[in-house]
Amino acid sequence: MKKMLKNSLLIGAAILGIGSIGAGGLEAKAATTTPPTTSATATITPQPVMLKSEPGIAFGTVDSSADDITYKSTAITGGLQVANPGEPTGWSVSVADSPFTAGTGGATLKNAQLSVADSSTTPVKADDADNVSTLPTFTGTTPISSAPVTVLNAAAGAGVGSFTASYEPTDASLAVPAGNIGGSYSSTLTWTLANAPA
Length: 198
Hints:
This protein has about 200 residues and is mainly beta. The chain has one domain (about 50-195). It is built from one helix and 16 strands. It has a four-stranded antiparallel β-sheet with strand order 3-7-14-10, with no helix packed on it. The protein is elongated. The N and C termini lie far apart (about 100 Å). The model is unreliable at about 1-20 (pLDDT under 50). Keywords: Signal.
Protein backbone atom coordinates (compact mmCIF):
# COMPACT_ATOMS: atom_id res chain seq x y z
CA MET A 1 0.00 0.00 0.00
CA LYS A 2 2.79 2.37 0.82
CA LYS A 3 4.58 1.59 -2.42
CA MET A 4 1.52 2.33 -4.49
CA LEU A 5 0.97 5.71 -2.87
CA LYS A 6 4.56 6.71 -3.51
CA ASN A 7 4.25 5.87 -7.19
CA SER A 8 1.15 7.96 -7.61
CA LEU A 9 2.82 10.99 -6.02
CA LEU A 10 5.68 10.72 -8.51
CA ILE A 11 3.27 10.45 -11.40
CA GLY A 12 1.42 13.54 -10.12
CA ALA A 13 4.63 15.55 -10.03
CA ALA A 14 5.50 14.50 -13.57
CA ILE A 15 2.09 15.44 -14.88
CA LEU A 16 2.11 18.84 -13.17
CA GLY A 17 5.61 19.55 -14.56
CA ILE A 18 4.90 23.27 -14.71
CA GLY A 19 7.50 24.17 -12.20
CA SER A 20 10.60 22.98 -10.56
CA ILE A 21 10.99 21.52 -7.13
CA GLY A 22 13.17 23.72 -5.00
CA ALA A 23 13.90 23.90 -1.34
CA GLY A 24 10.53 25.43 -0.66
CA GLY A 25 8.55 22.93 -2.71
CA LEU A 26 6.88 23.32 -6.10
CA GLU A 27 7.36 26.71 -7.85
CA ALA A 28 4.93 27.73 -10.59
CA LYS A 29 6.22 29.44 -13.77
CA ALA A 30 4.36 32.49 -15.07
CA ALA A 31 2.76 31.98 -18.44
CA THR A 32 4.15 34.27 -21.15
CA THR A 33 1.97 35.62 -23.95
CA THR A 34 2.63 38.10 -26.76
CA PRO A 35 0.19 41.04 -26.61
CA PRO A 36 -1.76 41.62 -29.81
CA THR A 37 -0.61 44.57 -31.94
CA THR A 38 -2.82 47.03 -33.80
CA SER A 39 -2.25 50.30 -35.65
CA ALA A 40 -3.77 53.77 -35.68
CA THR A 41 -4.04 55.58 -38.98
CA ALA A 42 -5.09 59.08 -39.96
CA THR A 43 -5.40 60.67 -43.37
CA ILE A 44 -5.44 64.47 -43.18
CA THR A 45 -6.37 66.09 -46.47
CA PRO A 46 -4.73 69.52 -46.93
CA GLN A 47 -7.17 72.39 -47.49
CA PRO A 48 -6.43 75.58 -49.46
CA VAL A 49 -4.53 78.47 -47.88
CA MET A 50 -6.82 81.47 -47.22
CA LEU A 51 -6.25 85.21 -46.85
CA LYS A 52 -8.60 85.99 -43.95
CA SER A 53 -8.03 89.75 -43.46
CA GLU A 54 -6.00 92.63 -44.83
CA PRO A 55 -5.09 95.97 -43.22
CA GLY A 56 -6.53 99.31 -44.28
CA ILE A 57 -4.55 102.55 -43.92
CA ALA A 58 -5.89 106.01 -43.04
CA PHE A 59 -3.99 109.32 -43.03
CA GLY A 60 -6.84 111.47 -41.80
CA THR A 61 -7.20 115.14 -42.79
CA VAL A 62 -3.85 116.91 -43.20
CA ASP A 63 -2.68 120.27 -44.46
CA SER A 64 -1.31 120.62 -47.96
CA SER A 65 2.26 121.87 -48.36
CA ALA A 66 4.18 124.01 -50.83
CA ASP A 67 7.20 121.75 -50.20
CA ASP A 68 7.88 118.01 -50.25
CA ILE A 69 6.10 116.44 -47.28
CA THR A 70 5.65 113.02 -45.74
CA TYR A 71 2.44 112.23 -43.91
CA LYS A 72 2.26 109.56 -41.20
CA SER A 73 -0.77 107.29 -40.97
CA THR A 74 -3.22 107.90 -38.16
CA ALA A 75 -4.70 104.39 -38.17
CA ILE A 76 -4.04 100.96 -39.64
CA THR A 77 -7.14 98.87 -39.23
CA GLY A 78 -6.95 95.10 -39.08
CA GLY A 79 -4.01 92.79 -39.49
CA LEU A 80 -2.77 90.70 -42.37
CA GLN A 81 -4.09 87.24 -41.46
CA VAL A 82 -3.38 84.03 -43.37
CA ALA A 83 -4.75 80.58 -42.52
CA ASN A 84 -3.03 77.47 -43.84
CA PRO A 85 -4.97 74.37 -42.77
CA GLY A 86 -2.13 72.02 -43.78
CA GLU A 87 -0.90 72.80 -47.30
CA PRO A 88 2.79 71.69 -47.38
CA THR A 89 3.98 73.61 -50.46
CA GLY A 90 4.39 77.04 -48.79
CA TRP A 91 2.72 80.32 -49.68
CA SER A 92 3.29 84.08 -50.01
CA VAL A 93 1.34 87.34 -49.81
CA SER A 94 2.15 90.42 -51.88
CA VAL A 95 0.67 93.91 -51.99
CA ALA A 96 0.37 96.58 -54.68
CA ASP A 97 -1.39 99.94 -54.78
CA SER A 98 -3.16 102.07 -57.35
CA PRO A 99 -2.44 105.79 -57.84
CA PHE A 100 -3.94 108.12 -55.19
CA THR A 101 -6.80 109.84 -56.99
CA ALA A 102 -9.55 112.28 -55.99
CA GLY A 103 -12.52 110.24 -57.21
CA THR A 104 -13.41 109.17 -60.73
CA GLY A 105 -11.79 111.53 -63.21
CA GLY A 106 -10.32 113.62 -60.39
CA ALA A 107 -6.78 114.80 -59.76
CA THR A 108 -3.97 112.35 -58.98
CA LEU A 109 -1.23 112.76 -56.39
CA LYS A 110 1.73 112.78 -58.76
CA ASN A 111 4.73 110.63 -57.76
CA ALA A 112 3.32 109.99 -54.29
CA GLN A 113 5.02 107.07 -52.51
CA LEU A 114 3.20 104.89 -49.98
CA SER A 115 5.34 102.73 -47.69
CA VAL A 116 5.07 100.82 -44.42
CA ALA A 117 7.72 100.24 -41.77
CA ASP A 118 6.55 97.90 -39.02
CA SER A 119 7.60 99.02 -35.54
CA SER A 120 5.94 96.36 -33.38
CA THR A 121 8.09 94.00 -31.31
CA THR A 122 6.35 90.89 -32.65
CA PRO A 123 5.21 91.84 -36.15
CA VAL A 124 4.07 88.33 -37.10
CA LYS A 125 2.86 85.62 -34.77
CA ALA A 126 0.94 82.38 -34.78
CA ASP A 127 -2.66 82.85 -33.69
CA ASP A 128 -2.41 79.70 -31.55
CA ALA A 129 0.27 79.79 -28.85
CA ASP A 130 1.05 76.07 -29.20
CA ASN A 131 1.56 76.15 -33.00
CA VAL A 132 4.59 73.95 -33.85
CA SER A 133 5.15 75.25 -37.39
CA THR A 134 7.93 77.63 -38.46
CA LEU A 135 6.72 81.24 -38.71
CA PRO A 136 6.46 82.84 -42.15
CA THR A 137 8.99 85.54 -42.96
CA PHE A 138 7.57 89.05 -42.67
CA THR A 139 8.99 91.99 -44.60
CA GLY A 140 7.97 94.84 -42.33
CA THR A 141 9.58 97.69 -44.27
CA THR A 142 8.01 97.85 -47.69
CA PRO A 143 7.69 100.57 -50.33
CA ILE A 144 4.35 99.91 -52.03
CA SER A 145 3.83 100.60 -55.72
CA SER A 146 1.84 99.26 -58.66
CA ALA A 147 4.30 96.34 -58.86
CA PRO A 148 3.45 93.67 -56.24
CA VAL A 149 5.95 93.32 -53.40
CA THR A 150 6.09 90.31 -51.08
CA VAL A 151 5.13 91.00 -47.46
CA LEU A 152 4.73 87.49 -46.00
CA ASN A 153 6.53 84.38 -47.22
CA ALA A 154 6.34 80.78 -45.98
CA ALA A 155 8.80 78.22 -47.31
CA ALA A 156 7.66 74.69 -48.13
CA GLY A 157 6.64 72.96 -44.90
CA ALA A 158 6.49 76.25 -42.95
CA GLY A 159 3.64 78.64 -42.17
CA VAL A 160 1.13 75.91 -41.35
CA GLY A 161 -1.67 77.20 -39.12
CA SER A 162 -3.10 80.67 -38.73
CA PHE A 163 -0.77 83.70 -38.62
CA THR A 164 -1.30 87.44 -38.27
CA ALA A 165 1.08 90.25 -39.18
CA SER A 166 0.11 93.52 -37.54
CA TYR A 167 1.15 97.13 -37.90
CA GLU A 168 1.13 99.98 -35.41
CA PRO A 169 -1.21 102.91 -36.22
CA THR A 170 1.59 105.21 -37.46
CA ASP A 171 3.62 102.59 -39.39
CA ALA A 172 2.60 103.81 -42.86
CA SER A 173 3.86 106.94 -44.55
CA LEU A 174 2.87 108.81 -47.70
CA ALA A 175 5.56 110.93 -49.32
CA VAL A 176 4.02 113.65 -51.48
CA PRO A 177 6.29 115.82 -53.67
CA ALA A 178 5.81 119.58 -53.96
CA GLY A 179 3.47 120.74 -56.73
CA ASN A 180 0.45 118.56 -55.90
CA ILE A 181 -2.93 120.12 -55.22
CA GLY A 182 -5.15 119.51 -52.18
CA GLY A 183 -8.06 117.10 -52.30
CA SER A 184 -9.48 113.93 -50.85
CA TYR A 185 -7.39 111.13 -52.31
CA SER A 186 -7.63 107.38 -52.06
CA SER A 187 -5.72 104.38 -53.34
CA THR A 188 -6.76 100.73 -53.66
CA LEU A 189 -4.46 98.20 -52.02
CA THR A 190 -4.47 94.79 -53.68
CA TRP A 191 -3.32 91.91 -51.46
CA THR A 192 -2.55 88.71 -53.37
CA LEU A 193 -2.10 85.24 -51.89
CA ALA A 194 -0.05 82.72 -53.87
CA ASN A 195 0.00 79.01 -53.00
CA ALA A 196 3.77 78.93 -53.37
CA PRO A 197 6.69 80.66 -51.65
CA ALA A 198 8.09 83.78 -53.31
